[in-house]
């Protein structure tokens, strides 16, 4: 393993230990891992809209996927809009059961030979408290699959579930002494007393916080703000994601992605799986 590569791997390992998240496995003897290296910054937004939900993202080495859920007749259905609801498209069938089967096949990890958890971001589209209670019930059926929190301690698992969407879920999650999910915060949560063991992720709308959309140089004040947000989050052991960043292929999107990587933003949001895979392979060394 080259010295620079090893330093990066060790740095990621130390950072993961500090935040209570499982670290990526270092390369095996000979410098090669057993399976494809996951793209830790790659987040598949609206993952279920692809022809093969979850699997298309995994084929492109994404290490974070997002599913929108509705609580309907006691089950959790996956769709972006109510008109698209289908009783056959459940969270269990599209995500939970396939992830459990893959982890079993790969002897305890989503990507064979790599121990960093896959992030499953679950965006609740109906009333948050009720939907979360059903989500909690479904997650708890898959023992050993998910990162868990119990009485102040985080135990890493192959998949880390983070709950987003309707904010009524937050107090329910916070009140649990043991749980299989965590909470997706907003920039207003940055710097609060909430620990990373409750809010490991800070997400927000790019266009609500920045005017720059990739045309011309990024304004210095906005670049400073971006770097400040990331530094503050990382100081608290939290990761950062923005949605509503430019996602149409072209120089503007590439310019925004370059600035996000330069600021060390943890997750780049896209519906273009192949496009982000190619970009990160070329630019995120």
TrEMBL record:
GO terms for biological process: lipid metabolic process. Pfam families: GDPD_2. Residues 1-29 form the signal peptide. Residues 26-47 are annotated as: Disordered. Keywords: Signal. Coiled coil: none annotated. One of its GO terms (molecular function) is phosphoric diester hydrolase activity. InterPro entries: AIM6_PI-PLC-like_dom (IPR039559), HAT_RTT109-like (IPR051236), PLC-like_Pdiesterase_TIM-brl (IPR017946), TAT_signal (IPR006311). The keyword Signal applies. It comes from the Bacteria. This is Altered inheritance of mitochondria protein 6.
């Amino acid at each position: 393993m080259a010295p620079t590569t090893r330093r990066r791997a060790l740095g990621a390992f130390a950072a993961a230990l500090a935040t209570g998240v499982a670290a990526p496995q270092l390369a095996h003897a000979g410098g090669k891992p057993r399976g494809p290296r996951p793209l830790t910054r790659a987040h598949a937004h609206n993952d279920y809209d692809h022809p093969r939900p979850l699997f298309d993202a995994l084929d492109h080495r994404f290490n974070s996927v997002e599913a929108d859920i509705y609580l309907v007749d006691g089950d959790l259905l996956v769709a972006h809009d109510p008109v698209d609801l289908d009783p056959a498209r459940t969270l269990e069938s599209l995500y939970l059961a396939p992830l459990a089967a893959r982890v079993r096949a790969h002897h305890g990890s989503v990507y064979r030979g790599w121990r960093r958890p896959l992030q499953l971001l679950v965006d609740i589209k109906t009333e948050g408290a009720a939907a979360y209670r059903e989500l909690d019930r479904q997650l708890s059926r898959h023992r050993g699959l998910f990162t868990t929190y119990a009485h102040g301690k985080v135990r890493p698992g192959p998949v880390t579930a983070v709950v987003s969407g309707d904010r009524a879920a937050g107090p329910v999650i916070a009140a649990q002494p043991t749980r299989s999910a965590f909470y997706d915060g907003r920039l207003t949560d940055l710097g609060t007393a909430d620990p990373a063991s409750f809010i490991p992720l800070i997400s927000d709308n790019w266009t609500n916080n920045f005017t720059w959309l990739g045309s011309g140089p990024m304004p210095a004040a906005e670049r400073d703000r971006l770097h400040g947000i990331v530094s503050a989050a990382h100081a608290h052991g939290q990761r950062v994601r923005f949605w509503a960043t430019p996602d149409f292929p072209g120089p503007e999107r590439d310019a925004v992605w370059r600035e996000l990587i330069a600021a060390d933003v943890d997750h780049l949001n896209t519906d273009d799986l192949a496009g982000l895979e190619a970009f990160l392979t070329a630019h995120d060394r």
